Amino acid sequence: MGEKRGKGKKGIGHLEMITAMLIFLFAVVFVVYIINISLRARTSEPVLDALEAKFREEAEINFTKTLLKINAENNPDCFIVPRHSDFAQETLMFITQNSQMANFNLNGDLLIENRGNRLYEIYVFPEDVMNDYRLPPGSECEAPDGGSSYSVNYHGRIFSAKRLSELDDREYEELKTRFNLGTKDFEIILSGDINIKIGEKVPPKKVEIEARAFPIEVMREDGEIVEAMVNMKIW
After folding, report:
1. Which residues contact 51 (CB under 8 A, 6 or more apart)?
2. Which of 44, 168, 185, 188 sits 20 to 30 Å CA-CA off 208?
3. Domain assignment present for 37
4. Is there a domain that residue 86 lies in?
5. Where are the alpha helices (DSSP H) in 60-182?
């Protein structure tokens, strides 16, 4: 009886050792797997960061945004307000009101179409990226009887539909050079309100792909601001 009990205890001890060994091996494999994923992610991030930075450099534009408030009881076709000191005679800009484009003119002072709402958003650009909106001939403009005021300027960057279209028209090898990709291939797809595919390559089936997705705002040439999702791939 005692001998059998001893053998039983030994069997249980061996089973516990095997179980502990299996748990240990599983833990080691799991840790190695996590470290491998982490190292792989760290390796891919700088490449994706560089591509995103170059993409933004090529496709984004600077802009200055100012709000103009008009206080008026009179109701002419258009208002005459003093020109903002940042608006040069040749300033490239457009004006929106309730998300709709408003006709305007810079002729010494600023002439803005009266659309009922008295709050305007004025966007100013250093380059020609959108259509020109001018007041129709014969518009009768008056100064607002309650005066007007500008807000503090806001400076930012936004993607330009015109620049994105220009990138889409470029040859693939030229884009690789502009993006400093060396021997790597890439694909950039915009979806949503803007649908563009930059880069003609299709990744092979058996290849490791590094990818990133992020939302952006895009300014069309008519001044409308729309949303899109960018999906970048490198392999």
Report:
1. 179, 181, 186, 232, 234
2. 168
3. no
4. yes
5. 161-169, 172-178
56 shares its domain with 169: yes
pTM: 0.68
Task: Residue 76: name the closest of 131, 156, 147, 143 by CA.
Answer: 143
Would you state the pLDDT for residue 195?
Answer: 94
What residues does 112 pair with on adjacent strands?
79, 104
Helix ranges, 60-130 (H): none
Look-up of token digits 């930012």? 156
Q: How confident is the model at residue 43 (pLDDT cuts 50, 70, 90)?
A: very low
Which value, in Å, is the radius of gyration of the alpha carbons in the chain?
31
In a domain, 93, yes or no: yes
Structural domain of residue 112, as residue ranges?
A: 62-157
Q: Which of 174, 189, 185 is nearest to 207 (CA)?
A: 185
Judge whether residue 5 has pLDDT over 60: no
Task: Report the domain count for the chain.
Answer: 2
pLDDT at residue 79, rounded to an integer = 93
User: Which residue matches tokens 């590094």?
Assistant: 210
Please tell me whether residues 146 and 79 are part of one structural domain: yes
Are 210 and 218 within 8 A, CB to CB? no
Q: List pLDDT tens digits, range 102-138.
A: 888 877 788 888 888 789 988 887 765 555 677 877 7
Note the residue count of the chain: 235
Any domain includes 213: yes
pLDDT of residue 16: 73
Indicate the Cα dihedral angle 94, 96, 100, 101, nearest 10°.
-20
